Amino acid sequence: MFSACADPKSIEGLQWLLCYLTTGKHVDFYWSFATVLSLLAITAPVAMGFGFAGAMAARSQILPLRWLGKGYTGMVRGVPDIVFFLFFVIALDQGIEWLNHQVQCPDWTAPIRQGLEFRVCPEAKVPLGSSPQWLHKLYGFGLAILTFALVFGAFAANVLYGAMQAVPRAQLETAEAYGMSQSQVFRRILVPQMWVYALPGLSNLWMILIKATPLLFLLGVQDIVYWARELGGAKTSAYEYPHGDWRLYYFLFLLVFYLSFTRVSEIILGRLTAKLSRGQATAAGEAMRKAGI
Amino acid sequence: MSCWETVSAYAFRSLGYGERLLPRSDFTLCQQFTLIGSGLIWNIYFGLIALTFGFFLANAIAMAKAASNPWLRKPAEWFIFVFRGSPLFIQFFLAYEAFVLLPRAGIEIFGLTVQTSWVTKAWAGALFVLFLNTAAYSAEIFHGALRSIPKGDLEAADAYGISGWSRYRRIQWPTMLRLAWPAYTNEAIFLFHSTTLVYFSGFPAFQQRGDALYYANYFADKTFNPFIPYPIVAVYFVILTLLLTWVFGMINKRLNRHLPSNMSRKIRLRPQLIR
Known about the structure:
The complex is a heterodimer of chains A (293) and B (275). Chain A has 293 residues and is mainly α. Chain A has one domain: MetI-like fold, CATH 1.10.3720.10. Chain A is 70% helix and 1% strand. Chain A is built from 10 helices and 2 strands, in the order ααααββαααααα. A two-stranded antiparallel sheet of chain A has the order 1-2. In chain A, strand 1 and strand 2 form a beta hairpin. The longest helix of chain A is centred in the first third of the chain and has 35 residues. Chain B is 65% helix and 2% strand. In chain B, strands 1-2 form a two-stranded antiparallel ribbon. In chain B, strand 1 and strand 2 form a beta hairpin. In chain B, helix 1 packs parallel to helix 2, helix 2 packs across helix 5 and helix 7 runs antiparallel to helix 9. In chain B, 42% of the residues are buried. At the A-B interface, helix 4, strand 2, helix 7, helix 8 and helix 9 of A face helix 3, helix 4, helix 7, helix 8 and helix 9 of B.
């Protein structure tokens, strides 16, 4: 990166470290933090969307829709989430290819499952075998995001469903007495009031989501864990920057990253809770009113 | 190979008994059930031992966090923060790398050589991490329960002249346990769930002796078919969860036996999941 780093064997000390930390692979490592952050930034709203839809379905008047919602929210209880992570990625991948196969090659006769292999016609491969490397990476990342959103959507649906049930019945009845329709009650009364009940659960979920990001590594995405293992491993003198086994320090760095991330989130969410409790008919809101805040 | 032969060959494969070679082709449902069930032994081992020892450490840390002395309180707060604030996945990696750095030949302490190679094995190293992790999560639960003991109970104890250690042992601790139990049940369930991370996080599976998910992953990789092995793991874990809920429910009943039935705390499953 710098001209002084042209010959790493000859430099020493702080300069060596500076050059070492700015190699191309390290820049990739720093970029992988952006991968993790973008995963969080994309997954959180998508999972909220899934959760909202799931909670609405679970409250629905229509029986099959309610079953669907309840099934979705119930799915994640009792089974380790990592099972879902490993399962969904393959299942989604195969499902997409299978659908594509039905559309693209309707007259393909060979069975798709040939013993141990899953074989669709070459045109139905997603992404195509000939497509560039970055498209494969992007597809893998997209699958990971979809998996995260599905699993966390189920958790969010749980939380939001509980929050919708927690809004005092009298509030809804008052709205009905004023002649609001069901959808108006939902939009104007239920949704604005439910957030204060949902926030503890949602902030818990956000913490969990942060702590679940290392699972990206298991899904085959080159995330921070991947790079920490890759860069930290012992390098012989055949490399430009030989060093011993430094994985411990890399993982310590990741630990500090996660700890500070969760700490900052905790502080921000605490402030948000205080803000939302203001003027609400809850214990926290009452305490704030008495304190004169 | 009939199903019974498969069971007798592979039932204890994860512990190193029976057939050494894993099946390589013509996978049957029976093989998958047997091997994944065999791997479940490890999940139960990690969960049970970490939970048992973690319970005692959690009590100590919860007391330390509730102490007024900052020399006790601060370390407890930091311990809980570090283990609850970071992913278990990273903790596993970190612990493994730290254990690997220990000298191979062992450490000399007062002329005695302490062997160190065993801590890099999953059965000890991963167990240690899980133990500390569950202790931190449970300590937070117990600390919360300690703080929500009804004020009247403590005043009554004072009025009777019960104080110090005997107040803790006879009034505070039982009430704390009673209040914390529903949350602690969830903690136990999610501890068992998180045992599935062990073989995906640094600690290598020695001679392919892995846990339930390790074998499920093996089958899914070999057959390219996730629709059989993962649901099998799910079934096993649902059964395990039901068993745990039942056992903890019995204990909950016993803890609340002096209360009218409508006042006892019900156990509700709350998703808390990934560490």
